[in-house]
Specification:
427 residues, alpha/beta, 2 domains, nine-stranded mixed β-sheet, two-stranded antiparallel sheet, 53% helix
Protein backbone atom coordinates (compact mmCIF):
# COMPACT_ATOMS: atom_id res chain seq x y z
CA UNK A 1 0.00 0.00 0.00
CA UNK A 2 1.34 3.44 -0.92
CA UNK A 3 2.04 6.07 1.74
CA UNK A 4 -0.70 8.31 0.32
CA UNK A 5 -3.26 5.50 0.53
CA UNK A 6 -2.26 4.75 4.12
CA UNK A 7 -2.52 8.43 5.00
CA UNK A 8 -6.03 8.66 3.54
CA UNK A 9 -7.19 5.65 5.54
CA UNK A 10 -5.72 6.98 8.76
CA UNK A 11 -7.61 10.24 8.27
CA UNK A 12 -10.88 8.30 8.05
CA UNK A 13 -10.25 5.79 10.79
CA UNK A 14 -9.82 6.53 14.49
CA UNK A 15 -8.22 3.16 15.26
CA UNK A 16 -5.59 1.09 13.55
CA UNK A 17 -3.63 -1.96 14.55
CA UNK A 18 -1.03 -4.13 12.91
CA UNK A 19 0.02 -7.76 13.12
CA UNK A 20 3.49 -8.53 14.46
CA UNK A 21 3.42 -11.96 12.80
CA UNK A 22 2.55 -10.41 9.43
CA UNK A 23 3.68 -6.78 9.16
CA UNK A 24 2.21 -6.53 5.66
CA UNK A 25 -1.32 -6.58 7.11
CA UNK A 26 -3.11 -3.69 8.83
CA UNK A 27 -6.62 -3.49 10.28
CA UNK A 28 -8.56 -0.21 10.02
CA UNK A 29 -11.57 0.16 12.32
CA UNK A 30 -14.29 2.74 11.63
CA UNK A 31 -15.57 5.23 14.19
CA UNK A 32 -19.02 3.62 14.14
CA UNK A 33 -17.74 0.06 14.57
CA UNK A 34 -20.32 -2.58 15.53
CA UNK A 35 -19.87 -4.03 19.00
CA UNK A 36 -20.18 -7.83 19.41
CA UNK A 37 -21.63 -8.67 16.00
CA UNK A 38 -23.58 -11.91 15.51
CA UNK A 39 -22.92 -11.98 11.77
CA UNK A 40 -19.80 -11.15 9.79
CA UNK A 41 -19.96 -10.29 6.10
CA UNK A 42 -16.45 -11.20 4.90
CA UNK A 43 -15.74 -9.68 1.50
CA UNK A 44 -12.49 -9.72 -0.52
CA UNK A 45 -12.07 -6.64 -2.69
CA UNK A 46 -9.46 -5.40 -5.11
CA UNK A 47 -9.92 -2.16 -7.04
CA UNK A 48 -13.71 -2.02 -6.80
CA UNK A 49 -14.01 1.73 -6.22
CA UNK A 50 -16.60 2.09 -8.99
CA UNK A 51 -19.12 -0.14 -7.21
CA UNK A 52 -18.00 -0.14 -3.56
CA UNK A 53 -20.43 2.55 -2.39
CA UNK A 54 -23.38 0.73 -3.96
CA UNK A 55 -22.17 -2.58 -2.55
CA UNK A 56 -21.90 -1.13 0.96
CA UNK A 57 -25.44 0.24 0.61
CA UNK A 58 -26.63 -3.25 -0.33
CA UNK A 59 -24.90 -4.76 2.72
CA UNK A 60 -26.37 -2.17 5.08
CA UNK A 61 -29.85 -2.70 3.62
CA UNK A 62 -29.46 -6.47 3.96
CA UNK A 63 -28.34 -6.19 7.58
CA UNK A 64 -31.27 -3.93 8.45
CA UNK A 65 -33.73 -6.18 6.66
CA UNK A 66 -32.41 -9.27 8.44
CA UNK A 67 -32.55 -7.51 11.81
CA UNK A 68 -29.16 -8.79 12.88
CA UNK A 69 -26.12 -7.20 14.50
CA UNK A 70 -23.45 -7.51 11.83
CA UNK A 71 -20.00 -6.32 10.89
CA UNK A 72 -18.72 -5.83 7.35
CA UNK A 73 -15.12 -6.95 7.01
CA UNK A 74 -13.51 -5.93 3.72
CA UNK A 75 -10.34 -7.84 2.82
CA UNK A 76 -8.68 -5.25 0.65
CA UNK A 77 -5.73 -5.47 -1.74
CA UNK A 78 -6.55 -2.35 -3.74
CA UNK A 79 -4.50 0.57 -4.96
CA UNK A 80 -7.55 2.75 -5.60
CA UNK A 81 -10.20 4.29 -3.30
CA UNK A 82 -11.95 0.98 -2.51
CA UNK A 83 -10.84 0.83 1.16
CA UNK A 84 -11.51 4.55 1.74
CA UNK A 85 -15.12 4.17 0.60
CA UNK A 86 -15.68 1.01 2.62
CA UNK A 87 -14.16 2.44 5.78
CA UNK A 88 -16.07 5.72 5.52
CA UNK A 89 -19.33 3.75 5.26
CA UNK A 90 -18.71 1.68 8.40
CA UNK A 91 -16.77 -1.37 7.27
CA UNK A 92 -13.69 -2.76 8.92
CA UNK A 93 -10.87 -2.91 6.38
CA UNK A 94 -8.12 -5.50 6.57
CA UNK A 95 -5.36 -4.37 4.21
CA UNK A 96 -3.30 -7.22 2.78
CA UNK A 97 -0.95 -7.71 -0.18
CA UNK A 98 -2.31 -9.34 -3.32
CA UNK A 99 -2.00 -13.00 -2.32
CA UNK A 100 -4.99 -14.76 -3.86
CA UNK A 101 -8.68 -15.12 -3.07
CA UNK A 102 -8.32 -18.18 -0.86
CA UNK A 103 -5.47 -16.57 1.06
CA UNK A 104 -7.67 -13.51 1.71
CA UNK A 105 -10.16 -15.70 3.58
CA UNK A 106 -7.32 -17.34 5.52
CA UNK A 107 -6.03 -13.89 6.51
CA UNK A 108 -9.53 -12.93 7.63
CA UNK A 109 -10.13 -15.97 9.82
CA UNK A 110 -8.56 -14.70 13.08
CA UNK A 111 -10.31 -11.34 12.65
CA UNK A 112 -13.87 -12.55 12.23
CA UNK A 113 -15.98 -11.69 15.28
CA UNK A 114 -19.42 -13.00 14.30
CA UNK A 115 -20.80 -16.42 15.15
CA UNK A 116 -22.07 -16.68 11.57
CA UNK A 117 -20.22 -15.76 8.38
CA UNK A 118 -21.41 -14.88 4.90
CA UNK A 119 -18.82 -14.75 2.14
CA UNK A 120 -19.15 -13.05 -1.23
CA UNK A 121 -17.74 -10.65 -3.79
CA UNK A 122 -17.72 -6.87 -3.61
CA UNK A 123 -18.67 -6.33 -7.24
CA UNK A 124 -22.48 -6.14 -6.89
CA UNK A 125 -22.95 -9.41 -8.76
CA UNK A 126 -24.39 -11.09 -5.64
CA UNK A 127 -27.35 -9.44 -3.93
CA UNK A 128 -26.30 -8.73 -0.36
CA UNK A 129 -29.63 -7.03 0.22
CA UNK A 130 -30.94 -10.58 0.61
CA UNK A 131 -29.01 -12.03 3.53
CA UNK A 132 -32.14 -12.73 5.59
CA UNK A 133 -32.64 -16.17 3.95
CA UNK A 134 -29.14 -17.12 5.08
CA UNK A 135 -29.89 -16.08 8.66
CA UNK A 136 -33.10 -18.13 8.56
CA UNK A 137 -31.08 -21.19 7.60
CA UNK A 138 -28.58 -20.53 10.40
CA UNK A 139 -31.50 -20.31 12.84
CA UNK A 140 -32.57 -23.77 11.66
CA UNK A 141 -29.20 -25.15 12.73
CA UNK A 142 -27.49 -25.39 9.35
CA UNK A 143 -23.71 -25.03 9.39
CA UNK A 144 -22.99 -24.52 5.70
CA UNK A 145 -25.28 -22.65 3.30
CA UNK A 146 -24.17 -22.81 -0.31
CA UNK A 147 -25.70 -20.23 -2.61
CA UNK A 148 -27.00 -21.48 -5.94
CA UNK A 149 -27.33 -19.22 -8.94
CA UNK A 150 -29.00 -21.99 -10.92
CA UNK A 151 -31.66 -22.44 -8.23
CA UNK A 152 -32.08 -18.64 -8.10
CA UNK A 153 -31.61 -16.44 -11.13
CA UNK A 154 -28.84 -15.43 -13.52
CA UNK A 155 -29.16 -12.13 -15.33
CA UNK A 156 -28.55 -12.22 -19.06
CA UNK A 157 -24.87 -11.56 -19.69
CA UNK A 158 -23.83 -12.30 -16.10
CA UNK A 159 -22.03 -15.55 -17.01
CA UNK A 160 -20.14 -16.16 -20.26
CA UNK A 161 -21.71 -19.04 -22.21
CA UNK A 162 -18.52 -21.10 -21.80
CA UNK A 163 -18.85 -20.86 -18.01
CA UNK A 164 -22.62 -21.26 -17.81
CA UNK A 165 -23.10 -24.16 -20.19
CA UNK A 166 -19.79 -26.01 -20.10
CA UNK A 167 -17.22 -25.30 -17.37
CA UNK A 168 -19.51 -24.87 -14.38
CA UNK A 169 -21.91 -27.78 -15.19
CA UNK A 170 -18.97 -30.08 -15.93
CA UNK A 171 -17.16 -29.41 -12.66
CA UNK A 172 -20.44 -29.65 -10.71
CA UNK A 173 -21.12 -33.03 -12.32
CA UNK A 174 -17.63 -34.30 -11.52
CA UNK A 175 -17.75 -33.22 -7.89
CA UNK A 176 -21.19 -34.74 -7.37
CA UNK A 177 -20.05 -37.98 -9.00
CA UNK A 178 -16.87 -38.23 -6.92
CA UNK A 179 -18.44 -37.34 -3.57
CA UNK A 180 -21.95 -38.69 -4.04
CA UNK A 181 -23.53 -35.27 -3.53
CA UNK A 182 -26.24 -33.29 -5.30
CA UNK A 183 -24.98 -29.70 -5.30
CA UNK A 184 -26.39 -27.46 -8.01
CA UNK A 185 -23.71 -24.73 -7.96
CA UNK A 186 -20.35 -25.40 -6.32
CA UNK A 187 -18.74 -22.19 -7.64
CA UNK A 188 -21.24 -19.69 -6.27
CA UNK A 189 -19.25 -17.01 -4.48
CA UNK A 190 -22.01 -16.20 -2.00
CA UNK A 191 -22.09 -18.76 0.79
CA UNK A 192 -22.62 -18.84 4.52
CA UNK A 193 -21.20 -20.94 7.32
CA UNK A 194 -20.75 -20.88 11.04
CA UNK A 195 -17.40 -19.59 12.26
CA UNK A 196 -16.89 -22.92 14.00
CA UNK A 197 -17.37 -24.82 10.72
CA UNK A 198 -15.13 -22.33 8.91
CA UNK A 199 -12.30 -23.03 11.34
CA UNK A 200 -12.80 -26.80 11.31
CA UNK A 201 -12.51 -26.83 7.51
CA UNK A 202 -8.82 -25.98 7.92
CA UNK A 203 -8.67 -24.54 4.42
CA UNK A 204 -5.34 -24.52 2.60
CA UNK A 205 -6.21 -23.06 -0.81
CA UNK A 206 -4.56 -19.79 -1.74
CA UNK A 207 -6.54 -18.98 -4.88
CA UNK A 208 -9.80 -19.68 -6.73
CA UNK A 209 -9.83 -23.35 -5.72
CA UNK A 210 -10.93 -22.42 -2.20
CA UNK A 211 -14.52 -22.75 -3.50
CA UNK A 212 -14.18 -26.46 -4.28
CA UNK A 213 -12.08 -27.21 -1.21
CA UNK A 214 -14.74 -25.63 0.99
CA UNK A 215 -17.53 -27.70 -0.57
CA UNK A 216 -15.49 -30.91 -0.38
CA UNK A 217 -14.61 -30.37 3.26
CA UNK A 218 -18.23 -29.62 4.12
CA UNK A 219 -18.91 -33.16 2.88
CA UNK A 220 -15.94 -34.69 4.69
CA UNK A 221 -16.94 -32.94 7.94
CA UNK A 222 -20.57 -34.02 7.48
CA UNK A 223 -21.76 -30.48 8.11
CA UNK A 224 -25.46 -29.72 8.17
CA UNK A 225 -25.66 -28.27 4.68
CA UNK A 226 -28.38 -26.60 2.65
CA UNK A 227 -28.49 -24.75 -0.65
CA UNK A 228 -30.02 -21.31 -0.96
CA UNK A 229 -31.13 -19.65 -4.20
CA UNK A 230 -29.32 -16.40 -4.96
CA UNK A 231 -29.57 -13.76 -7.66
CA UNK A 232 -26.55 -13.24 -9.88
CA UNK A 233 -26.17 -9.97 -11.79
CA UNK A 234 -23.91 -8.93 -14.63
CA UNK A 235 -21.07 -6.46 -14.07
CA UNK A 236 -21.92 -2.80 -13.83
CA UNK A 237 -21.24 -0.72 -16.92
CA UNK A 238 -17.54 0.05 -17.08
CA UNK A 239 -16.46 -2.62 -14.59
CA UNK A 240 -14.14 -5.35 -15.87
CA UNK A 241 -14.20 -8.71 -14.08
CA UNK A 242 -11.03 -10.01 -12.48
CA UNK A 243 -10.80 -12.89 -14.96
CA UNK A 244 -10.82 -10.40 -17.83
CA UNK A 245 -8.28 -8.21 -16.05
CA UNK A 246 -5.90 -11.14 -15.75
CA UNK A 247 -6.40 -12.46 -19.29
CA UNK A 248 -8.09 -15.16 -21.35
CA UNK A 249 -6.21 -17.94 -19.55
CA UNK A 250 -7.56 -17.04 -16.09
CA UNK A 251 -10.91 -18.91 -16.27
CA UNK A 252 -9.17 -22.02 -17.61
CA UNK A 253 -6.60 -21.86 -14.83
CA UNK A 254 -9.35 -21.38 -12.23
CA UNK A 255 -11.18 -24.40 -13.58
CA UNK A 256 -8.02 -26.51 -13.56
CA UNK A 257 -7.07 -25.74 -9.96
CA UNK A 258 -10.66 -26.35 -8.85
CA UNK A 259 -10.48 -29.78 -10.48
CA UNK A 260 -7.18 -30.32 -8.68
CA UNK A 261 -8.85 -29.55 -5.33
CA UNK A 262 -11.66 -32.02 -6.10
CA UNK A 263 -9.27 -34.76 -7.16
CA UNK A 264 -6.63 -34.53 -4.44
CA UNK A 265 -9.32 -34.56 -1.75
CA UNK A 266 -11.19 -37.42 -3.41
CA UNK A 267 -8.58 -39.78 -4.83
CA UNK A 268 -10.23 -42.71 -3.02
CA UNK A 269 -13.06 -42.48 -5.58
CA UNK A 270 -10.65 -43.57 -8.32
CA UNK A 271 -9.37 -46.66 -6.51
CA UNK A 272 -11.92 -48.12 -4.08
CA UNK A 273 -14.71 -49.40 -6.34
CA UNK A 274 -12.38 -50.16 -9.28
CA UNK A 275 -10.14 -52.03 -6.83
CA UNK A 276 -13.01 -54.13 -5.49
CA UNK A 277 -14.06 -54.98 -9.04
CA UNK A 278 -10.54 -55.90 -10.14
CA UNK A 279 -9.90 -58.01 -7.06
CA UNK A 280 -13.11 -59.98 -7.53
CA UNK A 281 -12.53 -60.42 -11.26
CA UNK A 282 -8.91 -61.45 -10.71
CA UNK A 283 -9.82 -64.07 -8.12
CA UNK A 284 -12.62 -65.44 -10.32
CA UNK A 285 -10.10 -65.89 -13.12
CA UNK A 286 -7.12 -67.09 -11.11
CA UNK A 287 -8.53 -69.46 -8.48
CA UNK A 288 -10.26 -71.93 -10.87
CA UNK A 289 -7.06 -72.15 -12.93
CA UNK A 290 -4.84 -72.90 -9.94
CA UNK A 291 -5.19 -76.66 -10.44
CA UNK A 292 -4.58 -76.62 -14.19
CA UNK A 293 -5.93 -75.50 -17.55
CA UNK A 294 -9.67 -75.24 -18.22
CA UNK A 295 -11.32 -75.64 -21.61
CA UNK A 296 -14.60 -73.82 -22.25
CA UNK A 297 -16.31 -73.96 -25.64
CA UNK A 298 -13.19 -75.23 -27.31
CA UNK A 299 -11.05 -72.43 -25.88
CA UNK A 300 -8.24 -73.49 -23.55
CA UNK A 301 -7.48 -71.16 -20.65
CA UNK A 302 -4.10 -71.72 -19.03
CA UNK A 303 -1.12 -69.82 -17.64
CA UNK A 304 -1.49 -66.67 -19.72
CA UNK A 305 -5.06 -66.23 -18.51
CA UNK A 306 -3.97 -67.02 -14.98
CA UNK A 307 -1.27 -64.35 -15.11
CA UNK A 308 -3.93 -61.86 -16.20
CA UNK A 309 -6.12 -62.83 -13.26
CA UNK A 310 -3.14 -62.60 -10.92
CA UNK A 311 -2.38 -59.07 -12.17
CA UNK A 312 -6.00 -57.99 -11.67
CA UNK A 313 -6.11 -59.43 -8.15
CA UNK A 314 -2.85 -57.84 -6.99
CA UNK A 315 -3.67 -54.48 -8.54
CA UNK A 316 -7.21 -54.55 -7.14
CA UNK A 317 -6.03 -55.35 -3.61
CA UNK A 318 -3.48 -52.54 -3.74
CA UNK A 319 -6.16 -50.10 -4.94
CA UNK A 320 -8.42 -51.04 -2.02
CA UNK A 321 -5.67 -50.36 0.49
CA UNK A 322 -4.76 -47.10 -1.27
CA UNK A 323 -8.38 -46.04 -0.83
CA UNK A 324 -8.20 -46.87 2.87
CA UNK A 325 -5.00 -44.89 3.31
CA UNK A 326 -6.46 -41.92 1.41
CA UNK A 327 -9.68 -41.93 3.40
CA UNK A 328 -7.70 -42.14 6.62
CA UNK A 329 -5.70 -39.06 5.64
CA UNK A 330 -8.78 -37.09 4.57
CA UNK A 331 -10.89 -38.05 7.57
CA UNK A 332 -11.44 -34.90 9.69
CA UNK A 333 -13.69 -36.66 12.19
CA UNK A 334 -11.81 -39.89 12.90
CA UNK A 335 -14.60 -42.39 12.35
CA UNK A 336 -13.37 -43.49 8.89
CA UNK A 337 -9.91 -44.31 10.24
CA UNK A 338 -11.56 -46.37 12.98
CA UNK A 339 -13.69 -48.15 10.38
CA UNK A 340 -10.63 -49.24 8.41
CA UNK A 341 -8.71 -50.37 11.47
CA UNK A 342 -11.77 -52.39 12.54
CA UNK A 343 -11.90 -53.99 9.09
CA UNK A 344 -8.23 -54.87 9.33
CA UNK A 345 -7.50 -55.38 13.05
CA UNK A 346 -3.78 -55.59 13.60
CA UNK A 347 -3.20 -59.00 15.18
CA UNK A 348 -5.72 -61.11 13.19
CA UNK A 349 -4.80 -59.45 9.89
CA UNK A 350 -1.04 -59.76 10.37
CA UNK A 351 -1.46 -63.39 11.49
CA UNK A 352 -3.64 -64.21 8.48
CA UNK A 353 -1.22 -62.47 6.11
CA UNK A 354 1.66 -64.43 7.63
CA UNK A 355 -0.20 -67.73 7.20
CA UNK A 356 -1.12 -66.97 3.58
CA UNK A 357 2.47 -65.88 2.91
CA UNK A 358 3.79 -69.20 4.25
CA UNK A 359 1.34 -71.25 2.16
CA UNK A 360 2.22 -69.30 -0.96
CA UNK A 361 5.92 -69.62 -0.22
CA UNK A 362 5.61 -73.41 0.13
CA UNK A 363 3.81 -73.62 -3.22
CA UNK A 364 6.65 -71.61 -4.77
CA UNK A 365 9.23 -73.93 -3.18
CA UNK A 366 7.28 -76.94 -4.48
CA UNK A 367 7.45 -75.51 -8.01
CA UNK A 368 11.19 -74.78 -7.77
CA UNK A 369 11.93 -78.31 -6.50
CA UNK A 370 9.83 -79.88 -9.26
CA UNK A 371 11.51 -77.66 -11.85
CA UNK A 372 14.98 -78.59 -10.57
CA UNK A 373 14.02 -82.28 -10.45
CA UNK A 374 12.99 -82.09 -14.10
CA UNK A 375 16.42 -80.86 -15.12
CA UNK A 376 15.27 -77.23 -15.20
CA UNK A 377 12.89 -77.95 -18.07
CA UNK A 378 9.09 -77.77 -18.09
CA UNK A 379 7.16 -80.92 -18.92
CA UNK A 380 3.47 -81.60 -19.41
CA UNK A 381 3.48 -83.53 -16.16
CA UNK A 382 4.35 -80.25 -14.36
CA UNK A 383 1.23 -78.39 -15.54
CA UNK A 384 -0.53 -78.57 -12.18
CA UNK A 385 2.65 -77.64 -10.36
CA UNK A 386 3.12 -74.61 -12.66
CA UNK A 387 -0.37 -73.31 -11.94
CA UNK A 388 -0.01 -73.82 -8.20
CA UNK A 389 3.33 -72.02 -8.39
CA UNK A 390 1.69 -68.98 -9.99
CA UNK A 391 -1.05 -69.11 -7.37
CA UNK A 392 1.60 -69.32 -4.63
CA UNK A 393 3.58 -66.37 -6.00
CA UNK A 394 0.39 -64.30 -6.22
CA UNK A 395 -0.60 -65.07 -2.63
CA UNK A 396 2.93 -64.20 -1.42
CA UNK A 397 2.64 -60.76 -3.04
CA UNK A 398 -0.91 -60.19 -1.81
CA UNK A 399 0.01 -61.26 1.73
CA UNK A 400 2.92 -58.84 1.79
CA UNK A 401 0.73 -56.00 0.44
CA UNK A 402 -1.85 -56.76 3.14
CA UNK A 403 0.78 -56.81 5.89
CA UNK A 404 2.40 -53.51 4.92
CA UNK A 405 -0.91 -51.78 4.22
CA UNK A 406 -2.28 -52.86 7.60
CA UNK A 407 0.78 -51.34 9.27
CA UNK A 408 0.20 -48.08 7.40
CA UNK A 409 -3.53 -47.98 8.22
CA UNK A 410 -2.76 -48.33 11.91
CA UNK A 411 0.15 -45.89 11.68
CA UNK A 412 -2.15 -43.23 10.19
CA UNK A 413 -4.74 -43.84 12.90
CA UNK A 414 -2.08 -43.57 15.60
CA UNK A 415 -0.16 -40.56 14.31
CA UNK A 416 -2.62 -38.14 12.73
CA UNK A 417 -3.74 -35.25 14.92
CA UNK A 418 -6.92 -35.58 16.93
CA UNK A 419 -10.06 -34.72 14.93
CA UNK A 420 -11.31 -31.14 14.98
CA UNK A 421 -13.87 -30.61 17.74
CA UNK A 422 -17.30 -29.26 16.97
CA UNK A 423 -17.49 -26.60 19.64
CA UNK A 424 -21.26 -26.40 19.35
CA UNK A 425 -21.59 -30.12 20.16
CA UNK A 426 -18.99 -29.84 22.92
CA UNK A 427 -21.06 -27.21 24.64
Amino acid sequence: MTDSAQSRLQQISARTYGFPDDPEMTMYIPENDVDQPVLSLVIPAMNEAEVMAEFMDWCLQGIEKAGVSAEILILDSSDDLTPDIALSMGARVLKTPVRGLGRAYLDAMPNIRGQFVILGDADCTYDFREIAPFMEQFDLGNEFILGSRFAGSIEDGAMPPLHRYFGTPLTIFLLNMIYGTSFSDIHCGMRGLTLDAFKRMNLKSQSWEYASEMVVKSVRLKLKTVQAPVHFYKDREGRVSHHKRIGWFSPWYAGWINLKAMFIHGSDFFVLKPGLLLLLLGLLIMVPLSWGPITIGGIRFSLNTMFLGSTFAIFGLQCIFLAGLAQGIYDPVGDIRQKWTRRFPYTPTVAAAGLVFCIGFLLCVNFVMAYAGAGYRLFDSMVGTNHLGVFGLTTVIMAFVTFVSTLLLHAIAANLPEPAVNTKEAQ
